[in-house]
Amino acid sequence: MHSKYSKDSINDPRWIIKVAKKRGLSGVAITDHDTIKGSLIAKKINNDPDFEIIPGVEIKTDIGDIIGLWITEEIKSRSWEEVIDEIHSQGGVAVLPHPYRGHRAVEEIANRVDVIEVFNARTSKELNKKAHELAMKLHKGISAGSDAHVPFEIGRGVAVINSDLRKDLIRGKVKPIGKESPYLLVHGLSFAIEKLRKLRGE
Fold first, then answer.
1. Measured by CB atoms within 10 angstroms of the end CB, which terminus of the chain is less buried, N or C?
2. H/E/C letters for each residue in 23-66?
3. CATH value of 58-189 in 1.20.120.450, 3.30.200.20, 3.20.20.140, 3.30.70.20
């Protein structure tokens, strides 16, 4: 999900933790657009040892978004191959989010990442199904996410994991559950938030 450190989101890191816990989640991955700032702040303020903050980032590359999980430094490159290399050099996990929404050369990227997002709450059922089929075809790990930019979206996409979070993601031992958000509403909200923040000089 995204925090206010993404230009099209209003989620304060404190809200994310509070709302996620209220909705029964045991952790979140915060993957702001092109920065790890939001996830590092959330990790710093989280005082619950039973609630995990996975530091991450969603990088807009030359052929589509790529997520890095468990990273500790900003990703400098914007070339998709170099982004994956940077994520791996930090010991992170490279994820292909919403493969059929805004990407080119999908199978080429999919072959290089560790995990494919097979449920994204801001993506249609048809495209999520297609993403799941891609992951099965390539024998890739799977994930699910809410892609939340506003509070009501938090927890709409969940990866249910039984034991080791990182290993289970990579091995595909994940149960993706959730409900798609109203597409036009949530994307319209993000567009409006970004425009408003730009007008305010934020």
1. C
2. CCCCEEEEEEECCCHHHHHHHHHCCCCCCEEEEEEEEEECCEEE
3. 3.20.20.140
Residues in the chain: 202
Instruction: Assign 15 to helix, strand or coil.
Output: helix
The string of DSSP letters for 152-175 reads GGTTSEEEE-SS-HHHHHHHT--E
Determine the average pLDDT of the residues in 30-48. 97
Radius of gyration of the chain (CA): 16
pLDDT (tens digit per residue) in 87-135: 999 999 999 999 999 999 999 999 999 999 999 999 999 999 999 999 9
CA angle in degrees (0–180, nearest 5) for 141-144-149: 140
CB 16 within 8 A of CB 154: yes
Q: 127 φ, ψ to 5°?
A: -75, -30
The DSSP bridge pattern shows strands 141-145 and 93-96 to be unpaired
Question: Which H/E stretch holds residue 102?
Answer: none
Q: Are strands 175-178 and 157-160 parallel, antiparallel or unpaired?
A: antiparallel
